């Protein structure tokens, strides 16, 4: 593979990622007086987080719907109870794994009955 | 708080993010070595970009020998959501933070680090943010390197299950805020629904015609995050303007 081509692509990756992250820090100065804009900025982060989660959390590579739903609800319940981040991450991925292993058996059981 | 203890409390809050990053980084590293990228290239990519989606995309485009302009536009669209994330984070920074430090803070503003830091109370200090970013940043690069060196060390099911940790991280950032505030609950529901609707709309457009390509880019993941979340925040901000006590 052409090294010059690859390194140029690395550079493009760096420029597009870094400058989109940096730009708002450079233009954002001090406090905003307008109440409406302050309200938007207050809600925007949570809107962004929600649109990152849905619907992708249920469409993950190499994972059926059942384990994804289980992992999702485990994470929701544990964070609702305000458990520490490491607990939320660990239990959510462990139970996702358990249900990934069980998934074929549960599916075939449902087909039998 | 002193500078050192701020950094330490950042480290303590940030290290669990590495748990979610490592398996994804392995996957990226494995992919890079499979397509014939050298180790220095894939590690340099990791250190310079600190992004999973962007790195996977560029690898994909390199493998098909895409032209520079195509790569640039694709990455730009994917990264546009960073502007929204950084705009929100910039509003939470301590106004005394200088330009030099902002250069580093911007580097580390990934989806997950954003999710974690945005729910902190009060203004964010630079040293705290550096603490949060330090371990995940190097874990990311290390993961890419190990993935490239040893290839498929973990069974696929385990890697996939650990991928759930990335979403769990974002869920853990969202749920406590949703619990405390009704408008945040509404904005999260609205934005989640819009995201699903846009995703569905996107399947209606194939990339054949120019219009089709435009719509398909508009409803891509990055487009959805920008349009959907801005629209939801706009509606909820109109309905429920923040109380003045919230500016600290």
Key traits:
heterodimer, A: 113 residues, mainly alpha, 2 domains, 4 helices, 78% helix, flat, B: 248 residues, 11 helices, 80% helix, globular
- Largest sheet entry of chain B: none
Shape of chain B: globular
Low-confidence stretches of chain A: none
Count all strands of chain B and give the number: 0
What does this structure look like?
- The complex is a heterodimer of chains A (113) and B (248).
- Chain A is an all-alpha fold and 113 residues long.
- Chain A folds into 2 domains: 1-30; 31-112, no CATH class.
- Chain A has helices spanning 3-27, 35-53, 65-80, 85-112.
- In chain A, helix 3 packs antiparallel against helix 4.
- Chain B is 80% helix and 0% strand.
- The two termini of chain B are 17 Å apart.
Summed up:
The complex is a heterodimer of chains A (113) and B (248). Chain A is mostly helical. Chain A is 78% helix and 0% strand.
Helix/strand layout:
The complex is a heterodimer of chains A (113) and B (248).
Chain A: H1 3-27, H2 35-53, H3 65-80, H4 85-112
Chain B: H1 3-34, H2 39-49, H3 52-63, H4 68-92, H5 99-107, H6 111-118, H7 126-150, H8 156-180, H9 182-204, H10 210-218, H11 221-239
């Amino acid at each position: 593979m052409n090294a010059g081509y690859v390194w140029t692509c690395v550079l493009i990756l760096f420029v597009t990622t870094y400058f989109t992250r940096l730009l708002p820090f450079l233009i954002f100065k001090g406090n905003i007086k307008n109440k409406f804009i302050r309200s938007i900025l207050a809600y925007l982060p949570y809107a962004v987080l929600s649109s990152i989660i849905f619907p992708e959390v249920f469409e993950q590579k190499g994972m059926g719907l059942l384990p994804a739903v289980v992992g999702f609800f485990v994470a929701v319940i544990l964070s609702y109870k305000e458990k520490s981040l490491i607990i939320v991450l660990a239990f959510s991925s462990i139970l996702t794994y358990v249900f990934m292993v069980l998934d074929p058996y549960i599916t075939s059981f449902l087909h039998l009955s | 708080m002193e500078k050192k203890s701020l950094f330490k409390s950042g480290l303590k809050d940030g290290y669990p993010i590495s748990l979610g990053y490592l398996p994804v980084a392995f996957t990226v590293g494995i992919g890079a070595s499979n397509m014939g990228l050298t180790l220095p290239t894939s590690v340099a990519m990791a250190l310079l970009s600190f992004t999973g989606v962007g790195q996977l995309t560029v690898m994909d485009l390199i493998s098909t020998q895409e032209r520079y302009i195509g790569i640039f536009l694709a990455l730009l669209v994917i990264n546009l959501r960073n502007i929204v994330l950084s705009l929100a984070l910039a509003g939470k920074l301590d106004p005394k933070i200088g330009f030099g430090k902002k250069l580093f803070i911007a580097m580390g503003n990934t989806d997950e680090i954003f999710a974690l830091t945005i729910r902190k109370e009060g203004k964010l200090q630079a040293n705290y943010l550096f603490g949060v970013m330090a371990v995940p940043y190097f874990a990311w690069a290390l993961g890419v390197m190990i993935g490239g060196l040893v290839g498929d060390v973990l069974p696929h099911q385990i890697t996939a299950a650990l991928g759930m940790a990335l979403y769990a991280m974002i869920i853990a950032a969202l749920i406590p805020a949703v619990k405390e505030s009704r408008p945040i609950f509404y904005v999260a529901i609205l934005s989640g629904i819009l995201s699903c609707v846009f995703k569905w709309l996107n399947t209606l457009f194939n990339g054949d015609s120019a219009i089709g390509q435009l719509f398909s880019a508009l409803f891509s993941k990055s487009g959805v995050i920008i349009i959907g979340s801005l629209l939801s925040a706009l509606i909820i901000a109109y309905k429920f303007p923040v109380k003045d006590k919230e500016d600290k």
